[in-house]
Design a protein that fits this description.
- The chain is an alpha+beta fold.
- It has 13 helices and 17 strands.
- Strand 3 (about 85) and strand 4 form a beta hairpin.
- Helix 1 (about 1-10) packs parallel to helix 13 (about 430-445).
- The radius of gyration is 22 Å and the shape is elongated.
- The chain starts with a helix and ends with a helix.
């Protein structure tokens, strides 16, 4: 989303544009998404739900949302009608009207066709390995990222470079350094090529890192011994309702306030840091009826009821159920989770008169004791979609050096433009589009030859 938007915007502003794509097709993680282009309804709401994100970048996001929608439609890219979305109707949403839930390749292909018709040169299966300063701009070198037998070398020169490479969710070592020692246990629910190339190329030139390097956007997924969940199954398998449930680690202990976040993303981060990167999602029949079986993800739907728990079980997930909490604890004990700790944790949670003062971690909202049989426990693992930290930028998406000054000719968008979200996210596709449009326009206006 960020790269295609930046290319379109730069071409529209008069730039001669080359779009370099490492994968064999365009779209990145956008092509696997639900297709919802949403953001908080205003800056005050963004600050309420994402207080540790950069407030100036959040202002760029919320003020740029409706202009982005209008611009996409003006390009001939159809969107559904505006609607409220997410918990407490905190967001405003329009959905891509090409493709289907979890498969937005048609929208990506349409964007690519528009870019090519505007004169953008698109180079697929191409990786960039080096970035050096050149008179008046930058020189980039790389090569064929596909079959070595078809290899070729690539050398490009540009007045400006817009990084829109999707973050570093495939860079296990960097994830271990910044986010979780269990990075190799994360399920990648996104593209498999984004591995931090923007950081590798820009940091040697003095670029600063943003805040939020510890944070990522993802979701709680069922743990499967073989770890195989196909891209077309990502959305159906995501357990979006964890913020209304109880999370226990392998010791049977609560480890986070489950209610933090917009839709489960904070729980996935915290869960990834538990022993072996696994955790148990515990809830009762009332929560199942009210929260599990839904008509879609907080306003994003392709019609018809969904049951992610049933789907997880069909994949072979480790799901236990019992008519009593003691029976549930006994079954968890058979799987290595101490029954005594499970009972202690659930009793403390259920009996808390004041969930902020009486239990730890405190429960700030949606404290709903588990009373209605049957009771369920699902073994889970965190899935990662993209990283929230990246290159430090200003409000024009110019990459800044460690002193806070823009580096001439370097821009970043999407997941490479870090810090707009922290712990909690507020609309990845919207940020990719708004920042991509900002970066592409700024690069073309300042330099004339963005690549």
């Amino acid at each position: 989303m960020a790269g295609l938007t930046a290319a379109l915007a730069a071409a529209e502003a008069g730039g001669r544009v080359t779009l370099v794509e490492r994968a064999p097709g365009v779209g990145g993680s956008m092509a696997l998404s639900a297709g919802g282009i949403w953001a908080p309804k205003d800056l005050a709401t963004a600050r309420t739900y994402v207080p540790k994100g950069d407030p100036e970048l959040q202002r760029v996001l919320v003020e740029g949302l409706r202009p982005l929608w209008a611009w996409l439609e003006g390009c001939g890219l159809p969107l559904t009608e505006e609607q409220a979305c997410m918990k407490d109707d905190l967001g405003r949403l329009r959905i891509m009207a090409l493709g289907s839930l979890g498969d937005r390749r048609a929208f990506a292909d349409a964007m690519a066709a528009l870019a090519e018709s505007a004169g953008v040169r698109i180079m697929l299966s191409t990786s960039l390995e080096s970035l050096t300063r050149a008179p008046g701009g930058w020189s980039l070198r790389g090569g064929w990222a596909g079959d070595a037998a078809e290899g070729h070398e690539v050398e490009l020169s540009a007045d400006a470079v817009v990084f829109a490479t999707g973050g570093f969710h495939n860079d296990t070592e960097r994830l271990k350094r910044y986010s979780t020692q269990n990075a190799d246990q994360l399920l990648i629910r996104a593209n498999r090529v984004s591995d931090g190339v923007a950081l590798r190329l820009a940091l040697p030139h003095g670029a600063r890192l943003s805040r939020s390097m510890s944070s990522f956007y993802g979701h709680t997924m069922p743990y499967l011994p073989d770890g195989r969940i196909e891209p077309g199954q990502f959305l159906a398998a995501s357990q979006y309702y964890t913020d209304y449930s109880v999370l226990l680690n392998a010791h049977g202990v609560r480890f986070t306030d489950e209610s933090v976040g917009v839709v489960d993303e904070f729980n996935a981060q915290q869960g990834s840091r538990q022993p072996a990167g696994r955790y148990w999602l515990v809830f009762d029949e009332q929560i199942r009826a009210e929260r599990v079986v839904t008509a879609g993800l907080a306003g994003i739907t392709d019609g018809g009821p969904k049951d992610p728990l049933e789907f997880a079980e069909s994949l072979g997930a480790n799901l236990v159920r019992s008519d009593t909490l003691a029976g549930l604890a006994a079954q968890l004990d058979e799987r290595g989770v101490p029954a005594e700790n499970v009972i202690d944790s659930l009793q403390a949670y259920n009996e808390a008169a004041d969930p902020v003062r009486d239990i730890f971690p405190p429960r700030l909202r949606a404290h709903q004791p588990l009373r209605a049989a049957p009771f369920y426990a699902l073994e889970c693992v965190a899935g990662i979609t993209y990283t929230m930290g990246g290159l430090g930028i200003d409000t024009r998406c110019r990459v800044e050096d460690r002193g806070g000054d823009p580096i001439p000719g370097l821009y970043a968008a999407g997941a490479d433009a870090g810090g707009v979200f922290h712990d909690v996210y507020g609309g990845g596709l919207a940020w990719a589009g708004v920042s991509g449009r900002t970066a592409g326009t700024a690069a073309a206006g300042a330099h004339g030859q963005p690549s």
